[in-house]
Design goal:
Blueprint (H helix, E strand, L loop, with lengths): L3 H26 L8 E14 L5 E12 L8 E12 L7 E10 L6 E7 L4 E3 L8 E12 L5 E11 L9
Antiparallel strand pairs: 1-2, 2-5, 2-6, 3-4, 3-7, 7-8
Length: 170
């Protein structure tokens, strides 16, 4: 007869193999989900647009962010990290990306939202490249699963432009 240690080892090995197979099946089942998130950004006000003393441009915006990210959630989703970035090209860089707002969405019920907010992080360009600049808002998301690999994607919204003239703080 086999010893107690041998039987415990066999049971533990069998349990770990079953757990690994269940995690793999959970991860693979996420590939069957085809999300269709939607978002809309509306700039309500440019609070200020100024040149800083050391020559950089800085902008403060008030905006409405409307999004429906519920389709990103499956039974394997732990949470979704979402952030809004302003993206634009300059002569030095093909892509400048500035994070303006972010949030962690822990549940599907909270994934459909509307908020009015000023940019959470400073919108600063190194240099004076922002006057009259066209830019895109890009909503990025990272789906963090309970098991398996992380999934990331984005939604680009174009057609935004900053003014030609600076505006002081009010």
């Amino acid at each position: 007869m086999h010893s107690f240690g041998y039987r415990a080892n066999a049971l533990l090995t069998f349990s770990v193999i079953i757990l690994a197979l269940m995690c793999a099946m959970a991860s693979l089942s996420d590939n069957l989900n085809t999300p269709n998130p939607s978002a809309q950004i509306q700039v309500l006000n440019i609070n200020w647009f100024q040149k800083q003393p050391h020559g950089n441009d800085e902008v403060s915006l008030t905006m409405n962010i409307t999004a429906d990210l519920q389709s990103l959630f499956t039974w394997n989703t732990k949470q979704v990290f979402v952030f809004l970035a302003a993206e634009y090209p300059t002569s030095k860089n093909a892509l400048n990306q500035i994070s303006l707002w972010d949030a962690i969405i822990p549940a599907k019920e909270q994934a459909k939202f509307w908020i009015q907010t000023a940019n959470k992080y400073r919108f600063v360009d190194q240099g004076s490249n922002l006057r009259g600049k066209e830019f895109n808002f890009t909503l990025h998301w990272h789906v963090m699963p309970k098991t398996g690999k992380m999934f990331a994607d984005k939604l680009v919204m174009s057609g935004y432009r900053l003014p030609q003239e600076y505006r002081r703080r009010t």
